[in-house]
Structures are given as structure tokens and as C-alpha cells.
Amino acid sequence: MKRWHCLWGLWLALCWLLPAALAAAEPAYGPLFTFSKQGRTHYLYGTMHVGRPGSDAPDWGLKQAMAQSEALVLELDVDAPDAPAEVLALARRGAAKQWRQLDTDSRRLLLAQLRRIDVERAQAQSLAPAMWLMQLALNDYQRLGQLTQEGSEAMLRQMARRERRPVLALETTDEQGRMLFEMPAPALREWVRQTADWEDKPEAERYYRELIAAWERGDLEALQAMVALPGYPRLSAWTQREMLDRRNLTMARRIDELTSSRRLLVAVGALHLAGSQGLVKLLGQRGYLVRPAPRAP
């Protein structure tokens, strides 16, 4: 599973057109923490933006987290009425600039990959390359039976509707779009190269499954270690700085602001929780007592 998958699968919520296969229902896991300050306890959940069909049954811990919270907070509320149209508009607006950022080799690599999914040059150039790279990433997930409509966020939104909890967002579509569709040329070219290099590697499926298993165990240390394994596509310096570290600082500040008025269940991509600049550490630095949440009574 490329690191980009964990960070940007949510962006393709508008592409929930993949077929679902039958599977036995299993409880959803993933890292879950409580964070408390001034007598008020909140929950922090590290999500996976895709999941297996039938794997969207919340476990006891998540049910408790939702029951004891007054609002669900996500990275982005993809159920907002204008969200899909805004994403497409941003991808179209950024298309010409991003295609110009690709050098000859990276443009050739991306077009070759898109032809394999029946996307020809004219169609490809109508959207920003970053949008197509996310689609290619989700195609890899699909081959493993991992679909966006079965991801953690979809399950949590359903729970929030049942419990009549409001859904809040830490970021706007425009904020995410500016970062994604205005990334510097070296970072975009590296993304293209890594996607092409990783394509059809025999060890890819094993790596994907190990990363998914680490998330299901809630093992943040394993997740953090796997994104730095030698021989696999790694987070670039720009990705680590812009897509994780800086966003985490903003997320921590906005979470802190929201906690003043209500109890929260905050759910963001699992990599946002991990590492020295992850939300677990940042919330601790803001005076919260952060602990693993119980997953069973």
C-alpha cells in the first residue's frame, strides 16, 4: 500500500463506483485513543480510507467512543453537498499546470499507466495528474478487495447519522486542493515515478497486507516503520513536511479549539497519529492526557 493511499484515499470519495464482493462481517479496528483535559474526555481514531466489504461493523470501543461524544470530527466532510463538484473543479483547474510540471519521462510513465485502465491522452489531460495518481492507487486497493465505500469514514458517518451527531471538518476542500494540486514539480514527478516503479511488483501484495494488518492491530509504531522500509516507495521530504507535519500542527490547533465546547470523536488518517509530529504527541504537548482507549468491556 503506497503511503499516498493512506493520506489521500478520502479524496476519491466521489469515485465510489467500484464493485463490492461478499465477505463475512468483521469488526473494524485501528488505533483508538482517549485524550482528556479539564474534566472532559475525547476520542482520537486513526482511520483507513478503504476497507473490505462487510468489514464496516464497529467494535465495542468505537461504539463507546461515538456514544460518549457529542460530535464526529473528520479531516474533510465529503457528504457536504458541493464537495464532489469542488474536487472536480479543482482537478480541472490544476490540470494544465500540473501536466506542464511533468518532464518527458514522468509524463510518459503516467500516460502509459493510464492507458492500462483505458484512459487516453485527451481524457487524461483534462484532470490534474495528482487526481489520476490517486485513482491508480485506489485501483491497487481494489485488487486486494479494499474499497473506499467500505472505509472507516463511511462507517463513522453512518454511525453519526444514527446517533444524530453533527459531523465537523478539520479542513476544507479548498485547503486540501491547494496542497494537492499545487504541489511542487519534484514531488509530483517523484509520485509518478514511485507509482510506476511499484506497479506489479511481486512483493507489493504482501506489503499491502502487512500494512493493513498493522492498522487493524492499531500498531502505530509498525505503521511508522513501514513507511521508511528500504526498497519501498517512501514519503518524500515534501510529503512528510506538507502532507503530514504541517497539517498535523493545524489539526491539533483546530481540535484544541473544538474541544472547548463539546466532547469529540476525532477521526483522521492513521499516519496523522504516528511519529514525533503526530497528533498523539501534539495533543500531549497541548496538555491533554492521551491514552489507548479500551476496545472491550
TrEMBL record:
Keywords on record: Signal
Highest taxon listed in the record's lineage: Bacteria
Record's keyword annotation contains Signal: yes
Transmembrane segments: none
InterPro entries, sorted: TraB/PrgY/GumN_fam, YbaP-like
Signal peptide feature range: 1-25
A Pfam family of this chain: TraB_PrgY_gumN
Name under which the protein is recorded: TraB/GumN family protein
Organism: Chromobacterium fluminis
